[in-house]
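To: structure desk
From: M.T.
Subject: fold request, one chain
Message: Could you run this one when you get a chance? Sequence is below, nothing fancy, just the single chain.
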Amino acid sequence: MASATPVFPISINPRVQIIHINISADGTKISTVQLGYKIRIWNSTNGKLINTLHFDDEIKASFFLPDGNRIITTSEVGG
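Reply: Done. Structure tokens follow.
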């Protein structure tokens, strides 16, 4: 059985609940959706935080568009 070795650590508060993770098509960025209203974009090479996006609606998932510079999100509005 093959074992996986972490490429880098992502520093996340242990009380934060991650509900979705996505990686860009070119493999350079990772998005994490926190339970609630935040998406964080990480550099997949060094694990550093690139940006934090805040939303008015609860985000369920995020996906990078093919260019790797934009994301699309899903949310539950009025739920």
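Reply (cont.): DSSP finds no helices and six strands in the chain. Let me know if you need anything else for the meeting.
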